[in-house]
Every structure is written in structure tokens, then in C-alpha cells.
């Protein structure tokens, strides 16, 4: 397993789009959850993406420090070292859901750090960063995205942006479950007008189609994965009709004709397999997975504690059993549980057994 170079990451995403599969993007908050994700990818023989959110980055620096940049840099350096010890698959590192209020204190400093790395002939710490301007008017969202795309190109990273609002709550960011959860084909053309189709820098677009963060019972979330196909088709038709710039048309020619965008699926926990499959067929190459892996990790801990209650607690003056309350014991069980969920995601998204190396 190796950390993806900028060129390798681009090839990963292009291969997924061409082959109609997607990579699980696993949110982690610790070295243990990182190791669980790596274990899952290795056992599934899948390339993949590991990401930290704004809250995860702060948590990685320690709850006393709460420094997102320090947490991100420390995480990326640790991850790079561990990843280098695996063989056979490639992993990219990503920062997830940077809302406007965190931009100047998190992603912009990271991009500046990475631009300096590139100037010194080094690879960037992260391979992609997400700008979440979904709370802003679309024109303002895209204006900031255009600035960040230029910075991303200079830092040899890929930008991800969100068009539309994902419902539910993640890391303190909340959005209602309503009609604002659905992007439109017209939004796709506005993205092309602002950012092109790769000629200004490679990017991924998270158009919303009813996505909701968190865990919900069946029937609450109304996904419309066919909307992604409509956005792709409308954009492809605009390219064919000469309604985009010549530079954008040339860039689009490098992608499958029916999939001009590299798409991202947010808020997928609890989605029906048929909905996930349709979204992937329509060009999703990255699917964020957080709620399900959080549960899997915690379930592994809970199972151990319930099975060994009299050993992990000093009941009635007894001494317990050190081997059972040793964090390495229940930590291994938590990692195995989470790794199994990562393997399931790789199989469902079609990336299992398709490592590029």
C-alpha cells in the first residue's frame, strides 16, 4: 500500500469513472480508526480514500489543544508512514466538509503548507480537500471554489465542492430535510461555467440528490439518484452543442462522454443498495462513509465490554482482569469490526479486487 501521488490519485478517480465503480471514503478520528480502515482496504484489495472532518482534525490534535491544522498535519504524517508499510493498494488522504467559517483557519493554511511543500519538490500532505459552500448562494459558493481550485492546482491537490445542501447533522453542521436537498441540471452548467471541466484543475462535485447525514429508518430519506444522471446528461449535451468553452470541451473529451463530472455521494448511511448502484452508474467515484463505521467501531468495544463485564470492572472489591481491560484488547476487536464494514463498502461499491497496482 502506498500513499497516492497526485498523478496516481487522478488515475484512481478516472479509472473508477470509466469502470463504473466508486471508492469508499472513510472518516477517521484516531490512529485506531485509521488502522481499521487500512486493514479493511488491504483485505478487500481495494484502493481507497481516508478523510478527516473539521471536528476529526481538531480531535486528532487532542481535546485540550483543538488545533485543526496541527491535528491534520500530525495525522497525515502518521498515516503516510503506516501506509508505506502495506503493499499492493493505493490510499489517498482527504479533508472533509470545510464550511465557510473554517476555511481561513483550516483548509487555506493546509493548502499554503502544501504549496510550500511542492515548491521544495515534495508531495503534498493531503491529496484532496473539500470546500463545503452549500450554505452560501451558488454564485458565492462557486466564486470561492474557483479561488480554491487555483490554490489546489498549485498545491498538486484535487478540490471537492458541494452543490446543494446535505440534510441532517455532521460535526455541528446541520441542514433541514427539504427541497433544498436536490441540485438541478442547471446547477451543473453553472459549475462548468465557473470551474470548467478539468482544464482549470481537477475537481470532484458533490451534487445533492436528497442526501442526509446520520442514521435514519427506511422511508425518511428520499434519494433521487437518477438526478445525477440528468445532471451528467444535460452537461454532456451542452458540450456537444458547443455551449461550453473550447477549453472545457477539450477537457470533457478526456472523460467518458456520458460522465463529464467526477461525482461524490455524501450522506449515504442507510441507503438502499439499488440507490447506491444507480448513483455509481451515474458517475459517483467517491462515497463518504462515517456513521456506519463509527457504529461498527463502537459496537466492537461494546460487545467486548458486555461479554467481559466482570473482567473490565473491579466488581465487589475484586481486581478484574488486566488483559481484558487493556485498551489493546478491546481496541483490536473494535478495529476488526470496523474493518469488516470497510470491506463491505468496497464490495458494494465495486472497488474490491480492483487495485490499480
From TrEMBL:
InterPro entries the record matches: Aldolase_TIM, FBA_II, Fruct_bisP_bact
Record-linked PROSITE patterns: ALDOLASE_CLASS_II_1, ALDOLASE_CLASS_II_2
Lineage top rank: taxon: Bacteria
PANTHER family: FRUCTOSE-BISPHOSPHATE ALDOLASE, FRUCTOSE-BISPHOSPHATE ALDOLASE CLASS 2
Gene expressing this chain: fba
Purpose of the protein: Catalyzes the aldol condensation of dihydroxyacetone phosphate (DHAP or glycerone-phosphate) with glyceraldehyde 3-phosphate (G3P) to form fructose 1,6-bisphosphate (FBP) in gluconeogenesis and the reverse reaction in glycolysis.
Record family assignment: Belongs to the class II fructose-bisphosphate aldolase family.
Pathway terms, separated by semicolons: Carbohydrate degradation; glycolysis; D-glyceraldehyde 3-phosphate and glycerone phosphate from D-glucose: step 4/4
SUPFAM superfamilies, per database record: Aldolase
Pfam families the record matches: F_bP_aldolase
Organism from which the protein derives: Bombiscardovia apis
Protein's recorded name: Fructose-bisphosphate aldolase
Keyword 4Fe-4S (UniProt): no
Keywords: Glycolysis, Lyase, Metal-binding, Zinc
Amino acid at each position: 500500500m502506498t500513499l497516492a501521488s497526485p498523478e496516481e490519485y487522478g488515475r484512481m478517480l478516472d479509472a473508477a469513472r470509466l469502470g463504473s465503480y466508486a471508492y469508499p471514503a472513510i472518516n477517521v478520528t484516531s490512529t485506531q480508526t485509521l488502522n481499521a480502515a487500512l486493514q479493511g482496504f488491504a483485505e478487500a484489495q481495494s484502493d481507497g480514500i481516508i478523510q478527516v472532518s473539521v471536528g476529526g482534525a481538531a480531535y486528532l490534535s487532542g481535546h485540550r489543544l483543538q488545533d485543526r491544522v496541527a491535528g491534520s498535519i500530525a495525522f497525515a504524517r502518521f498515516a503516510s508512514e503506516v501506509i508505506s508499510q502495506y503493499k499492493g493498494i493505493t490510499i489517498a488522504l482527504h479533508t472533509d466538509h470545510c464550511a465557510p467559517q473554517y476555511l481561513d483557519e483550516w483548509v487555506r493554511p493546509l493548502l499554503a503548507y502544501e504549496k510550500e511543500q511542492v515548491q521544495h519538490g515534495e508531495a503534498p500532505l493531503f491529496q484532496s480537500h473539500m470546500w463545503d459552500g452549500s450554505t452560501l448562494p451558488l454564485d458565492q459558493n462557486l466564486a470561492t471554489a474557483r479561488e480554491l481550485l487555483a490554490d489546489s492546482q498549485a498545491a498538486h491537490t484535487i478540490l471537492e465542492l458541494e452543490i446543494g445542501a446535505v440534510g441532517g447533522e455532521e460535526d455541528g453542521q446541520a441542514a433541514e430535510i427539504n427541497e433544498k436537498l436536490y441540485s438541478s441540471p442547471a446547477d451543473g452548467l453553472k459549475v462548468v461555467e465557473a470551474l470548467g471541466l478539468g482544464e482549470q484543475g481537477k475537481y470532484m462535485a458533490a451534487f445533492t440528490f436528497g442526501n442526509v447525514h446520520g442514521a435514519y429508518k427506511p422511508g425518511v430519506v428520499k434519494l433521487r439518484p437518477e438526478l445525477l444522471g440528468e445532471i451528467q446528461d444535460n452537461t454532456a449535451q451542452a458540450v456537444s452543442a458547443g455551449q461550453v468553452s473550447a477549453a472545457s470541451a477539450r477537457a470533457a473529451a478526456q472523460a467518458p462522454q456520458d460522465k463529464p463530472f467526477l461525482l461524490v455521494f455524501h450522506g449515504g448511511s442507510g441507503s438502499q443498495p439499488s440507490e447506491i448502484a444507480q448513483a455509481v452508474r451515474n458517475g459517483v467515484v467517491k462515497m463518504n462513509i462515517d456513521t456506519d463505521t463509527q457504529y461498527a467501531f463502537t459496537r466492537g468495544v461494546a460487545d467486548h465490554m458486555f461479554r467481559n463485564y466482570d473482567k473490565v470492572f473491579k466488581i465487589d472489591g475484586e481486581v478484574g482482569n488486566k488483559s481484558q481491560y487493556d485498551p489493546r484488547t478491546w481496541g483490536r476487536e473494535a478495529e476488526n469490526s470496523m474493518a469488516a464494514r470497510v470491506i463491505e463498502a468496497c464490495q458494494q461499491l465495486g472497488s474490491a479486487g480492483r487495485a490499480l497496482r
